[in-house]
Automatic annotation (TrEMBL):
<dbReference type="InterPro" id="IPR003593">
    <property type="entry name" value="AAA+_ATPase"/>
</dbReference>
<keyword id="KW-1278">Translocase</keyword>
<keyword id="KW-0067">ATP-binding</keyword>
<keyword id="KW-0201">Cytochrome c-type biogenesis</keyword>
<dbReference type="InterPro" id="IPR005895">
    <property type="entry name" value="ABC_transptr_haem_export_CcmA"/>
</dbReference>
<protein>
    <submittedName>
        <fullName>ABC_tran domain-containing protein</fullName>
    </submittedName>
</protein>
<keyword id="KW-0547">Nucleotide-binding</keyword>
<dbReference type="Pfam" id="PF00005">
    <property type="entry name" value="ABC_tran"/>
</dbReference>
<dbReference type="GO" id="GO:0005524">
    <property type="term" value="F:ATP binding"/>
</dbReference>
<keyword id="KW-0472">Membrane</keyword>
<feature type="domain" description="ABC transporter">
    <location>
        <begin position="11"/>
        <end position="229"/>
    </location>
</feature>
<dbReference type="GO" id="GO:0022857">
    <property type="term" value="F:transmembrane transporter activity"/>
</dbReference>
<dbReference type="GO" id="GO:0017004">
    <property type="term" value="P:cytochrome complex assembly"/>
</dbReference>
<dbReference type="InterPro" id="IPR003439">
    <property type="entry name" value="ABC_transporter-like_ATP-bd"/>
</dbReference>
<keyword id="KW-0813">Transport</keyword>
<dbReference type="GO" id="GO:0016887">
    <property type="term" value="F:ATP hydrolysis activity"/>
</dbReference>
<dbReference type="InterPro" id="IPR027417">
    <property type="entry name" value="P-loop_NTPase"/>
</dbReference>
Length: 231
């Protein structure tokens, strides 16, 4: 009988902690993500969701523990060089040049990636086809977000790191976001999302980061606690 080893997770966080300005933001995080997997980060404002994504993107390093990609520590320079080519980062800063057309704002990234022909279909899928030749400065907030999502599709890298991707999207936009996440995962892509808003992602793992500054207990909290005895 041959015993097959379980496949190595594509991404593994092993006992990862992160400090910012001498303050502990993330503490002892252990999580693994396989191809086709999705991880949803939730938690209150300031709990460290963006910090988590930035660490995965390599913008900051863990203060303890390791982030492994294919079993290799991403902070090693040779590995990081290959790892960063796998990443597609979507943040609240949209990096849209208002003077460029909608199409140019997607195509420019696609060309840098050495790819061709994906931008217009992506823009159309995201419902911006009619605006493709317009200057990006006329876009609404939700349309700007759709443009960012079109970029994800045009660049087409395997690991998506999405910081609040549904902010400013209408219901149809959220459905499109859910659709492209699902299609990406079917191809073996990985999606890691920080969000406050509900996004339907099938079989996603959820990681709720604890509040960094828990609010003070109110009288109601105290009365709700079964072990609380009034003085
Ligand atoms: N550059 C920095 N230097 C020092 N502290 C920082 C820095 N960036 C973020 N922080 C702190 O790290 C903590 C976590 O911030 P982070 O942006 O990761 O939270 P978040 O969960 O994404 O919050 P939100 O839900 O508001 O987007 C916050 O207390 C914040 O003040």
């Amino acid at each position: 009988m041959s015993l097959r080893r379980p496949p190595l997770p594509r991404i593994l966080l092993s006992n990862v902690s992160c400090m910012r300005n001498a303050q502990q933001i993330l503490r002892h995080i252990n999580v693994s993500v396989h191809d086709g997997g999705a991880l949803v980060l939730t938690g209150s404002n300031g709990s460290g969701k963006t910090t988590f994504l930035r660490m995965l993107a390599g913008f900051s390093k863990p203060s303890a523990g390791q982030i492994l990609w294919n079993g290799h520590d991403i902070t090693q320079s040779g590995i990081f060089h290959q790892y960063k080519l796998q990443l597609n980062w979507l943040s609240l800063k949209d990096a849209i040049n208002d003077k460029f057309t909608v199409l140019d704002n997607v195509q420019w990234f696609e060309v840098l990636e050495g790819k061709y022909g994906r931008s217009l279909p992506a823009i159309e899928l995201m419902g911006l086809g009619r605006l493709a030749k317009d200057k990006s400065r006329i876009l609404s907030m939700g349309q700007r977000k759709r443009l960012q999502l079109a970029r994800l599709l045009a660049i087409d890298r395997p690991i998506w790191l999405l910081d609040e991707p549904s902010v400013a999207l209408d219901d149809e936009g959220v459905k499109l976001l859910e659709y492209i996440i699902s299609e990406h995962r079917k191809k073996g892509g990985i999606v890691i999302v920080a969000t406050h808003l509900p996004i339907e992602i099938e079989d996603a793992m959820f990681l709720r980061l604890p509040a960094r500054f828990p609010r003070k207990m109110t009288l109601t909290d105290m009365l709700d606690r079964s072990d609380f005895v009034a003085p």
